[in-house]
Design goal:
9 helices; two-stranded parallel sheet; 7-stranded mixed sheet; alpha/beta
Length: 229
């Protein structure tokens, strides 16, 4: 109920009026059934505007840090994430990451829509980085289509480090669903997982026209953090 009220009566109309989002390809989003929306990730507000534009409810895999912050701000963030259907994902690896992937598969098993950022983190500089294969595992194990989505100019409205967004216009370009059913039962093959992930990233590159860099965004962030010390 909170999600519906915020989207249709309060936050939705306000945000649409201020930022005037434009969208191309909305008809490519399946009306029913489990589906993954795989998006590039430029800004925190990507997780706001994509669910706002798509008619169906979208559950996003969000980094677990959003759910563990302390103080009043942490409480507000945690409750906003939970109320809007966000799911915590632990990126530390091992069993924690496995549990996070299973949470996503549970959403798909209920014929719902799941939003994923294959890059695993926000781009540090507006470029498109190498995708992580967790998205491919979910596609093959969940036996669902994936729809590539390019967020446009969201990093200009709310770049990393900015607390409040600037007023401006953002866009979404939604590609046609990708079918990987030809790889059914091969989710244990790491070469297949990499191939599926790379095909998704190629589509995101074509839609967004971002410069593509074949390294993980987290590696770039870690390197920059080390140089700044």
């Amino acid at each position: 109920m909170f999600y519906w009220i915020m989207k249709h009566l309060i936050a939705g109309p306000l945000l649409k009026g201020i930022f005037r989002p434009w969208v191309v390809g909305l008809e490519n989003v399946p009306k029913t059934g489990g589906v993954i929306l795989a998006s590039n990730h430029l800004s925190f507000i990507d997780s706001v505007f994509l669910p706002l534009i798509v008619d169906r409810r979208v559950a996003f895999l969000a980094k677990s840090e959003y759910f563990t912050r302390t103080g009043f701000k942490g409480w507000m963030t945690r409750n906003f994430m939970l109320a809007t259907g966000q799911l915590p994902i632990d990126r530390s690896g091992g069993k924690a990451s496995e549990d996070s992937l299973n949470s996503g598969l549970a959403v798909l098993a209920q014929d719902k829509m799941l939003g994923i950022y294959p890059e695993g983190t926000r781009s540090p500089d507006g470029k498109l980085y190498r995708g992580r294969t967790g998205v491919a595992r979910m596609i093959l194990e969940g036996q669902v289509p994936v729809v590539p989505v390019a967020m446009i100019d969201t990093e200009k409205i709310m770049p990393i480090g900015r607390r409040l967004p600037k007023v401006g216009r953002i866009g979404l370009i939604i590609g046609k669903p990708l079918d990987f059913s030809r790889f059914e039962g091969m989710e244990g093959d790491r070469f297949i997982l990499r191939s599926v992930t790379d095909e998704i990233m190629y589509e995101l590159h074509a839609l967004s026209e971002q410069e593509y860099v074949d390294v993980y965004a987290t590696s770039v962030k870690e390197k920059r953090g080390a140089l700044s010390r």
